[in-house]
Fold:
Amino acid sequence: MTNNRTSEISDESIDDLRRNIHQLKKELKIERKRRILAENQKNELKKENKKLKKEIAKILSSAPFLSASSKTAEAGGVPSSKTFYRRKRQCEENRKSGGQPGHEGNGRKRPASNSPSMNIPLDSCPECGTHLNEPVNGAEQTRTITDIPFPRHIVYKIHYPRYWCSTCKKLVRGELPLPPNQQFGPAVASWIAYHRMLGLTIRKIQSSLLETYDIQMSEATILKLERWVADTLKEDCEKLKEKIIQENNINADETCFRVNGENGWLWVFTSTIGSYYKVAPTRGHSVPEEVLKGFNGVLGRDAWKPYDVIMCSGHQLDLLHVNRWLERAEIKHKIEPRSLLTSQPVKILRKGRPPEKFLEFVDGVRSILKKAVEYTENDPPPSLDERKNARDKFQAELTGLLERKWVDPDVIRIFKELRKRQDMLLTFMVHEDVPGHNNDAERAIRQGVLHRKISGGRRTWLGAEVFGVLLSIYETSKKQKENFMQLVGRKLGFEAPVENGNCSTS
Structure:
C-alpha cells in the first residue's frame, strides 16, 4: 500500500515537473520574442536617429543662424549694428572693465525741486530714547526724491457763450478744435497714440486706461482717437518726407506687415533728421519710386532689386549683407563664420583638407572691404581726392579678384552678385557722412517689427495708413529728442484749463 502511494506521489510530482517545465519553456519563448522585438526596436531607433542627424545637419547648413556660435551670431539674426565694428583692440587684454580714467561720466543729473520741501523732525534719539531739543545748526542733511503723482482723470465742462450777429441775424458761438461729439480730450488721444507706438494692443490699452485712470473706453473710440491724431499729423508727415528726400544720404529697408489678414509691406526711409514710414500692398519698385521722387543723394540699401530703379548720385550696398553671403558659404564648408572686420584666424570645424580656393576668395573680398572701411576712419580723415584715389585702387583689386576663374559653386554665386553690384560697394569712400552699412534703416524698421509681433499688424488699410503716419512722427521725435506726447498735444491745439490740480471753467 505504501509502495502504491509512493508511486502515485511520484507520478504526480513528475506531472507537476513536466507542467512546470512546459510553462518555463513557454515563458522562455515569450522572453526570446520580447528580446527580439526590443532588438528590432533598438535598430529602428538607431536608423531613425541617424536619419534625424542628417536632417538636422541639412537644416543647419541652410539656416546659418542655427549653427553659428555666440561669437558669430551675426550670421543670422543679431543686428548688424552690433557686429559691423567688432574689432579687437591691442590693449584690450590689459584694460579693466567699466569707465576708464578721464572718461566723462553719463550718470543721471540731480533734478531741481519743483514742489514744497519735506521736513523730517525727530523728538527722541532712536538709539537710547533720550528727548531731543532743537536741531544742530549747520548739521542738516538733504536728499532728493523723484516720484510721480497717482494718476487720475479730470472731467471739465465747456461753456459756450453765444452772441447775436446783427448781420447774419442769428446766435453764434466759438468752437474748439475737437471732432464733433467727441467726449475725450487731446491728452487722452496723445496717450493712446504713444502707447500704440509702444506696441500695445487695443485691449491692453482698454485695460490700462481702466486700471490706471478709471476711464472706460470702447475699441471703436480708441481707434477714433488714434485716427484723429493721425489726421492731425498727416500734413507734418508729408512735410517730413519732403525734407528727408532733400538729404544727402537716405537709408531704406522693408519688412512684411500683415493688413486685414493679408501680406503687406512696411517701408522705411530714414536720414539724420527723421524717418518716413509707408505701409503698401507691394514690395515692388513703385513704392521707392514714389517716395524718393526728386532724391539726388546716396541711397543706402540691401540687395533687393526694386531699389535699382532709383536714379540718384549713387547707391551704397550694405557691406553686412555681403559678409552674410560669405558667412553662409563658410558654414556650408564647415568653417566658423567671421565678421567683416575680423582679424581672427580661420577655424575649420571638420577634419580634412581646407578648401584653399574658397578661402582665398572669401579672405580676398573681406580684405579689400576691410581696408576700404578702415581707410575712411583714419585720423586725420583723408581728403576727398585721396579717398577717390584709394577707392580706385581698391576697386581695381576687387575687379582683379572677380575676373578670376572660380569653380566652387558658392563662390560663383557670390561673385556673380558682387559683379552686378560692384559699383555700389565702395560708394561710401567718395561721399562724406555716407556709411558702408544700412544699420540706420535696420534699426528704424525694428519698431514696426515689434508692433507686428505683438499685434499681428492692422485690421484695415486705413489703420495701416494711420500706423505709418504715427510711426513716422514718433521715430522722428526720438531722433530730434522731442517729447512725442507733448508734440501731439501741441498739434491737436487744445489743452484743458487746469490750474493747481483743480478744474477751471473759465
